[in-house]
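Holo prediction. Input below; ligand is pyridoxal-5'-phosphate.
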Amino acid sequence: MDWPSQEYDAPLDRAHAHVRAWLGTLADRPVPPQADIDELVAALGPELPEAPTPAVEVVDHLAAVADAGLTAMPSGRFFGFVIGGTLPAALAADWLVSAWDQNSGLRRLTPAHSALEDVAAAWLRDLLGLPAGSAVGFVTGGTMANFTCLAAARDEVLRRAGWPVAERGLTGAPRLRVLVGAERHDTVDLALRYLGLGAPEVVAADDQGRLRPDALAAALDVGPDGPTIVCLQAGNVHSGAFDPFAEAIEIAHRHGAWVHVDGAFGLWAAASPTTRPLLGGYDGADSWATDAHKTLNVPYDCGIAVVRDRAALRAAMGMHAAYLIADDAGDPLDTVPELSRRARAVPVWAALRSLGRSGTTELVDRFCRHARTFADGLTAMDGVQVLNDVVFTQVCATFGDDARTRRVVEGMLADGTAWMTGSRWRGRDVLRISVSNWSTSEDDVERSLAAVRRVLAGV
Ligand SMILES: *Cc1c(COP(=O)(O)O)cnc(C)c1O
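Structure of the complex:
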């Protein structure tokens, strides 16, 4: 056998060709998938082969079979959930990450990754307006970013109460109160479950889903101040709304609480002078979670945990083993739950380097502009009501009664031009739109609105 790199040439060439073909279909392929799982399993061949298969054949078979079962999530007309596409620089950088195959837990093991992570972390703190000294951890997504920040929060507030969780665990610990807004993201509850903290206390929200500071104050005024965490939200998945940070943080801190902000997509409002005021006072919090695979448009998966108190994060996440070459200044592994991990900071660095400050601002502004175009276009249709104040990237519309709205939701999926799915918000069925893809153009928005008009005419 020759130099083994030749073993990679043909499969990588094939993968490159398949990727270009896939990206080439995005402008016009139906957004929903065209095959179901049973068909795909049958086409893949469910039996484990006895003998090896050449890598080229594996790649060709994979691409040929998967195609019909792929949802065009990177399409400019995917408006479901909060997804985000992939910037060209970020996708290409992510390929390098796979090829370089660096285990990125230790600084001294991979200086290239550590340098990129340091630079990306500094750029993120700058663009997101977060304290210069904060620790930044690159995790798999918003859920794990919430988990990571809340682990630091849990340990720190209990430590202040004289209870070192790392040694003693939670059994017999002082009561720890966790307060969340009524419309926090469900993953906050999930993170609290992982942390052994159980269900949080729920604070009332207003008509846009924003936590009500008066309700927070009333809840905190009950009982003595003990270990407490308050979770706020930047970017409600239905309305896009932002909690009133300045007021809520002032109240929480007066009671000695740690304040965490879930800003999976909304924290990016900080990157534009137009939307930063929506976040007023957010930088007074103690930790912030966000995603890079949403608004920043890096490929899956990348979430970001930012913690003001570096020592608190390191105390919660750090580990030591004799065989690891640790750096006294702290290692990437001290900021995340994992030991071994992918070089997630690299696509983030590439996305930010390709956008620059102005491009990042423009990206956020463009999402907001498209969301407003959607809201205006929908409002102009007969019997359609936009339920939320469109302050950011999210739009929720109703089409009369719940049954009619559901028919529109189903009609949109059957039509296939755009992906917008349903939800329930404020007691009503809604069609939800989330604008989060860099490649969404005015034309994509117009084509999608035309699809809604077409579907509406048929229900
Ligand atoms: C998407 C989202 C999350 C969860 O993020 P994942 O990356 O899916 O784990 C948490 N909070 C909010 C507000 C979100 O929009």
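The domain at 92-351 is CATH 3.40.640.10 (Aspartate Aminotransferase; domain 2). That is the main takeaway for now.
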